[in-house]
Design brief:
Largest sheet: 5 strands, mixed
Number of strands: 13
Radius of gyration: 25 Å
CATH architecture of the largest domain: 2-Layer Sandwich
CATH topology of the largest domain: Translation, Eukaryotic Peptide Chain Release Factor Subunit 1, Chain A
CATH superfamily of the largest domain: eRF1 domain 1
Order of helices and strands: HEHHEEEHEEEHEHHEHEHEHHEE
Structural class: alpha+beta
Number of helices: 11
Strand content: 15-25%
CATH class of the largest domain: Alpha Beta
Distance between the termini: 38 Å
């Protein structure tokens, strides 16, 4: 299941009067090579169990959930760096798990009336889809790395889409005119190989909607042959060229290319926030700033792109104002994930509302890493499909 589909499934879960457990684990090894999260989890579950001492029914339900959690964690993929578990104590039992090759920021345990999904959404939108082409003069690998597809259903940390390989063509030293003819033959072979690789690459980029491309390999040997074959549209997607050996593992390729993607994302975040502010402050009113206005626009189905801080602590708003917005749009609100409104005092539930309403109206979601960029807007803004004043709802 795609993570966004799981987010919508969890977000559409109506509170049933029983606690819902949301567990996020950072499963990375510490400096000594050991994993700390299982000790932390055992302590957290023990502390939570004490809260049900006066309620035997919930205590029994919690014990059943704990057994499932421990069984799952005990058999989790050792290569996973992030683990999320969602367990309902209610009658309509839900038990969902996610294993990621990217870690969650920290271990967290939540027992609310509904699932808490913002950290899971953050795992998707902090790692947008991009392609990596590794190539030399006779073979090539194309990878697609994607936060959306990082659930370990096939035990792979990445998707290796294509392998393109030709006969090895080491340059042989021969003399006279024959050397020139042999050199031209090799160069023609390399050109044919480059065209074949680019053809496969451009098909994948088109089919999978890739916006960013990193080229890897020997810059002196292959890039002068390969890059001229790229179409203008694909060339514009290239964000970096990195020297990498054929002996580098897919995991090393992912780590090295993530640095380049991070630099590109930082520049894109600044540009995006400026676009939102310009749109909101222009006379046409094609944007919103702040939680309340953005929430209202989402309820109207007006939002084309939601822009939200990746740090939940950076999301600020007036509780009364947001509560009034939620109440105003409650009757017949088709964008709301559930009928029962969230607890406005908890910023996490409001962040969940923003993301879920964006997903329910096919709005794009962009997370901003640098908190200072949205500091003066309560950590939230949007670009609209149409002017606020054009809304039929009032």
């Amino acid at each position: 299941m795609k993570i966004t589909n799981l987010i919508k499934k969890l977000g559409g879960r109506e509170p049933d009067g029983y606690p819902f457990l949301s567990v996020y684990l950072n499963a990375e090894s510490n400096s000594t090579g050991r994993e700390d999260y299982q000790v932390w989890l055992k302590k957290s579950l023990s502390e939570q169990a004490r809260t049900y001492k006066e309620n035997p029914e919930e205590a029994e339900r919690f014990e059943n959930a704990v057994r499932k959690i421990n069984d799952f964690v005990g058999g989790a993929d050792v290569a996973s760096n992030g683990i999320a578990i969602f367990a309902s104590l209610g009658d309509g039992s839900i038990f969902e798990t996610v294993e990621l090759d990217v870690p969650f920021r920290q271990n967290r345990f939540f027992a609310y009336d509904r699932p808490y999904i913002f950290p899971l959404a953050r795992a998707v939108y902090q790692h947008p889809r991009y392609a990596v082409l590794w190539a030399d003069t006779n073979k090539a690998d194309i990878y697609i790395f994607d936060g959306e597809d990082r659930i370990r259903t096939d035990k792979r940390a990445n998707e290796k889409v294509e392998n393109i390989q030709n006969v090895v063509t080491n340059r042989t030293q021969v003399g006279g005119w024959s050397q020139g003819r042999f050199q031209r033959h090799i160069d023609n072979f390399h050109l044919h190989h480059a065209k074949e690789v680019v053809g496969e690459l451009e098909t994948l980029i088109r089919e999978k909607g890739i916006d960013k491309l990193v080229l890897c390999g020997d810059e002196a040997a292959i890039m002068p042959v390969l890059r001229p074959q790229l179409s203008k549209a694909v060339e514009e997607k290239v964000i970096a060229v990195i020297n990498l050996s054929q002996y580098d593992s897919p995991e090393e390729i992912r780590k090295r290319t993530l640095d380049a993607v991070g630099i590109e994302n930082a520049a894109a975040d600044l540009e995006k926030v400026n676009d939102v502010k310009d749109a909101a402050r222009a006379a046409a009113g094609m944007g919103t700033l702040g939680v309340a206005d953005t929430l209202a626009a989402l309820a109207n189905g007006q939002v084309q792109e939601l822009v939200i801080s990746a740090d939940i602590d950076a999301i600020g708003y007036g509780e009364n104002e947001v509560e009034a917005i939620l109440e105003h749009y409650r009757p017949g609100d088709g964008t709301a994930p559930v009928e029962r409104p969230p607890m406005v005092r908890f910023a996490g539930e409001i962040a969940d509302q923003l993301v879920l309403r964006a997903l329910n109206t096919d709005a794009k979601v962009t997370l901003i890493e640098d908190d200072s960029l949205l500091k003066d807007t309560g950590g939230v803004g949007s670009i609209l499909r149409y002017n606020m004043n054009a809304s039929a709802s009032g």
